Amino acid sequence: MKEKRSSFICFFIGAIIGFICFALVYGCLVINPTYDDWLWTGRDLNQHYEGWLFFRDSDWSFPFGMIKGLTIEPVSIIYTDSIPMFAIFFKILSPILPEKFQYFGIWGAMCLFLQGGFAALIVKKYVKNYFFIFMSTIFISISTITFQRMFEHTALAGNWIILMSICICVNHEKFESLIKKIIIWSIVVAISVSVHQYYVVMTYIFIACFLLIYFLKNKSIKAILNSISVLAIRVYPTIDKLHKKY
User: Fold this and answer.
1) What confidence score (pLDDT) does residue 226 get?
2) What is the pLDDT of residue 224?
3) What is the pLDDT of residue 243?
4) Angle of the 104-126 helix axis to the 44-57 helix axis, nearest 10
């Protein structure tokens, strides 16, 4: 219980550090959902924002996330890099939202918040000195890659997904049972799919690393079967979809 409380506090302080880094670099104005001037850059941000605007005005259809009117044929919100997870959620709330509404600033703040939180947990696994934990968190939070992506390819500012995967790998002992493995990695893959396709590939790499750690630790037939079952659940549906698409 004490360890869980310590981890929670560490995550929360790290997350606050991440958010402060975001505020210092971008300011808080971009978090205002009715302020969209910063999105009209004439570059990729236009595409992300326009994808959301057209999706918001489109009728609901199946599969979810289809945009009508942006192109001749309906296109998925995935291909406009408009962060499907947020687009679908805020489309549900659309009737009560202001006429002008953007969620990309909220997304950016959340990314730095979670990036700081998971960074602190990873460092805490190996370092017990809180000063070094939070100093390391600052350096990870001010990653130039994340900051650059925020104003270029906003969905790819979600590097907290990578840190979350690393955090699971370094704490692999907490996920011994097959059920826990399937649940935790299903959540990670679902988040990856709902943010950007690139993160799906990265997530699979971390799943493979996670299972390799498990196999090297146990070195048993059960570990091999366990690993194969989890990989099959993760990888086969993706291969099947790619096969059907191409």
Assistant:
1) 59
2) 57
3) 36
4) 110
Find out whether 51 and 144 touch, Cβ atoms under 8 Å. no
**Residues near 8 by Cβ (< 8 Å), separated by ≥ 6?**
none
Which H or E element spans position 164? helix 160-170
Predicted TM-score (pTM) of this structure: 0.85
Opening angle at CA 24, ends 21 and 30, nearest 5: 100
SS3 content of the chain, % helix, strand, coil (to 5): 75, 0, 25
Mean pLDDT of 35-62: 84
**Mean pLDDT of the residues in the chain:** 83
Collect all residues with Cβ–Cβ distance below 8 Å to 161 and sequence separation of at least 6: 188, 191, 192, 195, 199, 202, 203
pLDDT at 231 over 60: no
Task: Output the CA–CA distances (angstroms, integers) from residue 71 to 82, 83, 173, in the order listed.
Answer: 15, 18, 48
192's tokens: 């990856």
Task: Tell me which residue of 88, 47, 89 sits closest to 71, measured CA to CA.
Answer: 47
User: Could you give the C-alpha distances from 115 to 23, 27, 143, in angstroms and in order?
Assistant: 14, 18, 10
CB atoms < 10 A from the CB of 12, how many? 14
CA distance 160 to 165: 8
Write out pLDDT tens, residues 138-171: 988 887 777 777 777 888 889 999 999 999 999 8
Q: Is the pLDDT of residue 203 over 70?
A: yes
Spell 58-82 as b/e; 16+ CB within 10 A means b: beeeeeebbbeebeeeebebbebbb
* Residue keyed to tokens 């910063």: 38
What is the C-alpha to C-alpha distance for residues 64 and 35, in angstroms, rounded to an integer?
27
Give 194's DSSP letter.
T
